[in-house]
Amino acid sequence: MHFTLHQMKVFDAVARHLSYTRAAEELFLTQPAVSMQIKQVEEQVGMPLFEQIGKKIFLTDAGQEF
Are 49 and 9 within 8 A, CB to CB? Predict the structure, then answer.
């Protein structure tokens, strides 16, 4: 598995804020760009790192380990 520094920064921001929108604002990105980066990381890891319940997101156990 190879992750870019950019992907790690995006993951960190989403994990801290538990919000794609707030992470996007912090990183000066669009929300879809953040979602795409997270999706790419999840595909490389092979499991979901975040779980969405309604409008809230939470770290999965795999996300906490990552």
Answer: no
Which residue from 38, 48, 46 is spatially nearest to 4, judged by alpha carbons?
Answer: 38
Closest by CA to 7, choosing from 55, 22, 29, 21, is: 29
Which tens digits make up the pLDDT trace of 39-58?
Answer: 999 999 999 999 999 989 99
pTM: 0.91
Angstrom distance (rounded) from CA 39 to CA 31: 12
Give Dmax (Cα) for the chain.
31
17 vs 33: CA distance, rounded Å: 16
Task: Please state, in angstroms and rounded to a whole number, the distance separating the CA atoms of residues 4 and 59.
Answer: 20
